[in-house]
Specification:
Forms a complex with TatC. It is a single-pass membrane protein. InterPro entries: TatA/B/E (IPR003369), TatA/E (IPR006312). This is Sec-independent protein translocase protein TatA. This protein is mainly α. The radius of gyration is 21 Å and the shape is elongated.
């Protein structure tokens, strides 16, 4: 979906965001978005590692029996 936007579309989105939020608020919004994305990636990574550990524990239990 996002691969069809292209450079002109991104420029249009940036200009609209600049008009709507203003030049002072835009960096704050970007920073907040970056922090949210970072936390989401961290949570996803933790969840994935927890699930993988459970699978490994189940495999160990099956091989011990």
């Amino acid at each position: 979906m996002l691969s069809n936007i292209g450079i002109p579309g991104l420029i249009l989105i940036l200009v609209l965001a600049l008009i709507i939020f203003g030049p002072k608020k835009l960096p704050e919004i970007g920073r907040a978005f970056g922090q949210t994305l970072r936390e989401f990636k961290k949570s996803t990574r933790e969840l994935t590692s927890d699930v993988m550990e459970e699978f490994e524990d189940d495999d160990k239990k099956k091989t011990v029996k």
